[in-house]
Amino acid sequence: MPTTEAKPGNPNITVSTKPLPVCDRKPPQSFSFHRFRKLIHLICVAIFFALPFLNLMRFDIPRQRFYFFGYELWISEFSIIFFSLMFLMFIVAAMAMLYGRVYCGYLCPQMIFSEASITLESKLTRTVNKYVRWNAKRRTLLSRTLFYLIAVMASVVLAFAFISYFVEPRDLIHRLLRFDIKTAGGIAGATTTLLTLLDFLFLRQRFCTTVCPYGYLQGMLGDGDTLIVHYRDEDRECIECKKCVRVCHMGIDIRTSPYQIECIHCGECIDACVDVLSRLGKQGLIHYVWGEQGEKLGTGDKSWYQRIGLRNAKRVVVLLVILFYGAGLFTALSMRRAVLVRIAPDRTTMYRLGKDGTVYNRFRLQVANRGREQAIVQLSIEGLAGATFMNFENAVVVSGGQTLQTEFEIQAAPSAGVAPGVNYFRLISRVGNESDVFEETFITPSTDSR
Ligand code: SF4
Ligand code: SF4
């Protein structure tokens, strides 16, 4: 049987009639750590911009406020800020202990923007080389110029978003439009933009291995059960294609050791190896595993808490500490009042005696309205019969975000019959449905000289 025939329409060309070999290449793997990471990066970028612009989180330095998911906390609210910081710190420490450097590979803004910068640069170079018909030198010049222009614009936007974590965005935009580089805020903005640009252009992932302390911290927090990226090749199946090395943004070879300080546990080398070896009908040789000797992620017959990383008592203790600080934060937030009233006696003079024998005691009132709505504070006297406020508008109005300090006097005429010496009584402050009680003293001359 002939194995060739003339090509239809061109008898001078013969083509093979043998059936094509069946392609046994495996379909592309359905799950890819690369795609998963990019999705997480996208969500992180959205959160990065949303937090300050929606007032969800900002450490507002000019106003000395900490905006935290609808709460406007004042710097003086130490307990809430303390619990927030401790809670976040232990979350980061627990992540490092359980899941290694996944924060670096999946959530860190420095890593996200460094990778975006590298991807942008290589895409621009490829696009210019593909569509522009100039010589190589001019094409390189064009792609570099485009990259620098986009990097400058991106640096301004990112620096703006970053500083919005400390300064209100509307205030910031006014400074930006005025090209303010004289005030502290303007200088901080210009410096951050410049640093972001230099980071984009030159530093990138070098930051992770030279400046960032998190990688070094990982060495202290991780142990034999921490999730790592590990190369296992007992059957000597590695074909030395080195794709795992080429895809690694950190420029390392995971096959030499799973404990390299540069490794950010991103999983790109896992995808690369699966992609290569699946074409040969084999399993990948690089995996996420629980410690060097532990089982692969998502395998084994462990209980649910071991599958999520709670593998020894140390981890349970860390979880309990997180719960403790989380409960402390929740309690501090639930006990928080939007309007804080403070009343204290002014004892620069014990009392003032009027010509008619009326005794006056002076008090200081401080109202801090930490909410956004106007607050009306009303005071009343309990347990001091016949005593009244003197020249005091007993409905103090305080706008949202304002602090008011004032003084008032309480008077007791001789006819009120207030006893000589120290008289204990209560001042009640009311704001809406909430009230506070202040135990105070009213002092009159110890001998009845009125
Ligand atoms: S070795 Fe693998 S997991 Fe580690 S940084 Fe490189 S690509 Fe990511
Ligand atoms: S990608 Fe896999 S097969 Fe290729 S060199 Fe790396 S470990 Fe070996």
Distance between the termini: 136 Å
Give the number of helices: 13
Number of domains: 2
Global structural class? alpha+beta
SSE sequence, one letter per element? EEHEEEHHHHHHHHEHHEHHEEEEEEEEE
Radius of gyration based on Cα positions: 35 Å
Helical content stands at 40-55%
Secondary structure: number of strands: 16
Shape type? elongated
Ligand inventory: iron/sulfur cluster
Mean pLDDT: 85
Pick out the low-confidence regions. none
% residues in beta strands: 15-25%
The biggest sheet, with number of strands, parallel, antiparallel or mixed sense and barrel status, is: 5 strands, antiparallel
How would you describe this protein?
The chain has 450 residues and is of the alpha+beta class. The protein folds into 2 domains: 33-332, no CATH class; 339-444, Sandwich (Immunoglobulin-like). The chain has 13 helices and 16 strands. The chain has helices at residues 33-53, 78-99, 102-107, 109-131, 136-163, 169-177, 184-203, 206-210, 214-221, 243-246, 268-278, 304-307, 313-335, and strands at residues 4-7, 10-16, 57-60, 65-68, 71-74, 227-231, 286-290, 339-345, 352-353, 359-369, 375-382, 388-390, 396-398, 403-412, 421-431, 434-444. Strands 8, 9, 10, 12 and 14 form a 5-stranded antiparallel sheet that branches. β15 (421-431) and β16 (434-444) form a beta hairpin. α4 (109-131) runs antiparallel to α5 and α4 crosses α7. The protein starts with a strand and ends in a 6-residue tail after the last strand. The mean pLDDT is 85. One iron/sulfur cluster binds at residues 229, 247-248, 250, 252, 254, 263-269.
